[in-house]
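Minutes, methods subgroup
Present: GH (chair), OT, SY

1. OT presented the first of two proteins processed in the latest run. Sequence and structure tokens recorded below as shown on screen.
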Amino acid sequence: MSGWGHEPSEERGQAPWSARRPDGTVPPWSTAETQTYGGHRPAPAPAPEPPRAHRPRRLVLALLAAVVLGVGAGAGAWVLIREDDGGSAGATDLTVTTAPPSGTSTSPPSGTATTAPGYRRAQDPVGYTLLVPEDWIRRQKAGEEAPVVFYDAPDDGRRLQIFRIAEPTVEESLAQAETAPGYGFASRTGYRALARDSGPGFAELTYRYDDEDKGPRLVVDHRFEAADGTPYAIRASGPEELAPERIRAPLTTALGSFCPSGGDCG
């Protein structure tokens, strides 16, 4: 059975091949929609009172207390901000960086050390870090095998779609996503493969199709092995009328900065 509901759906938040197989079973990647003394003794004669040592001490203690309270307040604010951001889909960013205390150092996150102009580093709760356009909005939908994460442009219809794949190789995954009967890319209205590329640890297909709601779309589907050996797919898409470079640019930056949690991406 074929048709829109059974075809790869970048627009509906499904992994590109989500649907039931012809025998009625569901592909393993199918989708779908994440803290003193108190008295005074008489003296025989008055004498000048020596300077009291405890006053400076009290002042020092007061200053130390203020510093401690200030640091504590800052840490509390960091916790609150982090908790709020971490639980909201579409947050501008998912991490908050604070200046480390004097005498300590922090290591830069894995992957690309610098942030490209116009991009932000997203530490995604699904389990990886990458650079995405700074004003793109994140959302997540549950797939059968793994979550499907989207970053959507606010105004021009471009999108990144990221998910883990289950096939043994990236080549097999891409071939099945394209040609599987009933739900492969090739069954989409107006489908046409435009370019193919492959190499050690990656496979890529660029194609176009006619979306019934959004019109002609251009898609670059790139499947690759991450630094820890886990296979992923990142798909960039947008209106076919846009320059291909505008659609591919976020994909290129995402791939160059992608690092799975705990991976050695230096």
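2. SY then presented the second protein from the same run.
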Amino acid sequence: MAEYLLPFLLSFGLTALATPVLRDFLLARNIAVPPPRPRDLHARRLPRMGGLAIVASFSVVVGLYLVFAPDSLRFVESTISGIDRNLLGVLLGALILVATGYWDDRYGLSPLVKLGLQVIAALVVVAFGIRIWWITDPLGGPNISIGEWSWVLIPLWLVAMVNVMNWFDGLDGLTSGLSGIAATAIFFLALSPVVDQPATALLAAIVAGAAFGFLPYNWHPSSIILGDTGSMFLGFMVGVFAIISGAKFATAALVLGIPLLDFLWVVTRRLVTGQSLFQADTKHLHHRFLAAGLSPRATVSVLYIVATAFALIALNTQTEGKLAALGALVALMVLLGIVLVVSAKRRVP
């Protein structure tokens, strides 16, 4: 366990050092510093490419391990130019999303173009050999074979995770903190005897360090925002971790249960009402918390606590227990929704 502290601290420290430098650079040159939108909580102009600090730190630490300890990032026997084939697919997919996020943060991209590039990034992962070979039967039967259905399921999962974290990035510290919690949960899962994937644990430690290193500058009131550059990268990496750690989707779904359920609720509501799926609004769960009277910090803290609690449940239960926990999470989400809507209505004069 101790050997994973170094990559975590390296990633944390580099991000903590790089973020204020990046912030000041973007502000000085007025790059990706748009005026506040009506739904934004901050009244001042903030740079929106903070995710570049996370990506840069991640890249440096991964690069160091590829140079000095390449076997620590080995998933399969096959390599391309000395880099593990699976890892190269993940890095290329992440690069596509980072470039997409950068362009969108700086110049703007249409939703359909972004969606198409997200699908391409996910397909790259599959093309480089990552598969979901089987999933656990929730009823206790034999494992369910997936095989080449990975070409469909992996893009669906990764695109969903990218957009879940992107859409939920509506409060200071929300996506960066939840991503750090999720990566930490995957780290412990990857080191468990059942999974035993040290390479996955190493990547998760690096991502967790980067996410938490960014958080001090992204905590309310933030001085820099993740932007699509950061939120899509973090969503993609957490989604990949769920796949390469043995298709542990239930674990990821529990840790990120609230943003996932919020995503499904928002999509369903927009389809039913005829609203564009890509039209941002202020009806996400965290907006309901604010309308009910909670402060931004209190709202984010509550969501951190819920995510951490369900992460602990996921790490300490088997499939049946996780399904029960998912059911409890859905019930909690419904109850929260009712309470928050009633509270918000009572606050309206």
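Chair's summary of item 2: Residues 36 and 44 are 6 Å apart (CA to CA).
Next meeting: continue with the remaining queue.
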